[in-house]
Specification:
Blueprint lengths: L1 E5 L6 H12 L2 E4 H10 L3 H11 L6 H12 L8 E4 L5 H13 L6 E6 L2 H15 L6 H24 L3 E5 L4 H12 L1
Helix pairs in contact: 1-8, 2-3, 4-5, 6-7
Length: 186
């Protein structure tokens, strides 16, 4: 099964991705984690990505697509994979779609976790207080949410038109949300 998961900051994408990968025996591919590992390993693509990350800029789409292609082509992804953190923009989604078709892959489902924005702000403020994260302030959180909705809203329509979008309530107990996701995948 080939999936992607998306949702606003704080909705629990990473938590759910870890649980789903275990339930379905598929790989969880977080582009952020992959970029950091590639940069640390000083691979060619990692060093290219690091140049942008060190300048505080977004890694260009062609580099991200190249990294994703390399990872989904590995034998560890034969059972499937769950993309987390990618795509984030419509051009990335179109590039991912083209790249997947070029290697004979098709996306099975795009999971969108939904939650009330005020609830997410409160959740992230609490996380910031517990973990000491300085970027979990109300102003920064609301800015990240605004950026998410500006960039990602077109993705929802893109995957809806392809009949791949499944929206899931992202509020509640973690096992309950996992069960909702698994139910829509059956």
């Amino acid at each position: 099964m080939k999936l992607l998961i998306m949702g606003p900051p704080g909705v629990g994408k990473g938590t759910q991705a870890d649980r789903i990968k275990n339930e379905l025996n598929i790989e969880h591919l977080s582009t952020g984690d992959i970029l950091r590992k590639e940069a640390k390993a000083k691979t060619n693509v990692g060093m290219d990505a690091k140049l942008y990350m060190d300048m505080g800029r977004l890694v260009p789409d062609h580099i991200l697509i190249s990294i994703v292609k390399e990872h989904i082509s590995k034998s560890k992804c034969e059972n499937g994979y769950l993309l987390d953190g990618f795509p984030r923009t419509l051009p990335q989604a179109q590039g991912l779609d083209d790249m997947m078709h070029s290697i004979g892959h098709d996306l099975d489902c795009a999971i969108s976790l939904l939650a009330n924005e005020d609830e997410l702000v409160n959740r992230l403020i609490k996380r910031g207080q517990e973990s000491g994260r300085t970027d979990d302030t109300p102003e920064v959180i609301r800015n990240r949410q605004q950026i998410y909705w500006e960039q990602t809203a077109p993705l929802l329509d893109f995957y809806k038109r392809k009949n791949l979008l499944k929206e899931v309530d992202g509020l509640g107990e973690i096992p309950e949300i996992t069960k909702r996701i698994l139910n829509i995948l059956k």
